[in-house]
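Recall the central idea of this unit: under ordinary conditions, the amino acid sequence of a chain determines the structure it adopts. In this exercise we apply that idea directly, starting from the sequence alone.
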Amino acid sequence: MRARQSARADGHQDMERAAPIAASLSTALVTGASGFVGSAIAASLRSSGHKVVVLVRPSSPRTNLDPRDTVVEGDLKDRASLKRALSGVRFLFHAAADYRLWARDPEEIVRNNVEGTRLVMQEALRAGVERIVYTSSVATLKIADGASATEDSPLSEAAAIGAYKRSKVAAERLVEAMVEKEGLPAVIVNPSTPIGPRDVRPTPTGRVIIEAASGRMPAFVDTGLNLVHVDDVAAGHLAALARGRIGERYILGGENVLLGDMLADIARLVGRRPPRLKLPRKMLYPVAYAAESLARVSGGEPFATVDGLRMAKRRMFFDDSRARRELGYVSRPYREGLADAVAWFRAHGRLK
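Accordingly, the structure predicted from this sequence is:
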């Protein structure tokens, strides 16, 4: 490990960053494998012939875990469990994240995402992991007015809306700093908005799909987002492992879609009438404040959040040309992701 870091310090860093890795069949650790994106990465690794180790908390759901994988119970903030999980591992996919747009204590989201990332990266360096793919988010990128945002427009932490975005920006900057200063062999990927099967929690977008498919979204706001099948995001992670440049970031996206069109597509999938009422965002702020107040009492998660409405001010459209050009990344039509999501939620009793 010291020899590799020394080589970077002696001027070979740029050559090493550009060189693709021979990702032969090996053992890979996936954090967050009980969740949505992490389980898709684990499945993609498994189908490619890699041995998979998964780090999960004792309280994590086991629905998405595969009996063929090696399970290590632990926590990202527990160094001892990280050491156990990283023992004998060649590759690391750090996909675990606290993906909430609201929490009673917003700083809890920041601590989970930033400190968890710091510890797992430090332990990966100590373990001599050969290559890391870090799952960031398009939340770390500045939205472009009237255009699709690219990797060349990083968002500052001060400009990030809400604890989740702030935490992902801080964690990504942490990884970048460790690449530059400590020789961390990490490639960064920025998924847009994944949809599809195994959204067990579900994610905020998964909750929109459930509510819309159940006929509980009679209105919507004028915004847009970039939708991508979660299995394409997973394949993009493996492409980043094999061909990504160390220290580079790659958007793993799909299609830019208006929210109204997404809801109409969901309605067609379930045989419902699509919502027609488009509401100004300002009208929904009282609803969001009320939902958050109720959540503080009930302990649940609010369906509408103030930060979510603030984010919806701009259409969250992205350009993933770099990943397609450099990684050979591809994605299927987003409607296939919607169909797979609806089918999975129906099979697991989430649609009423």
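Residues 106-127 form the longest helix (22 residues).
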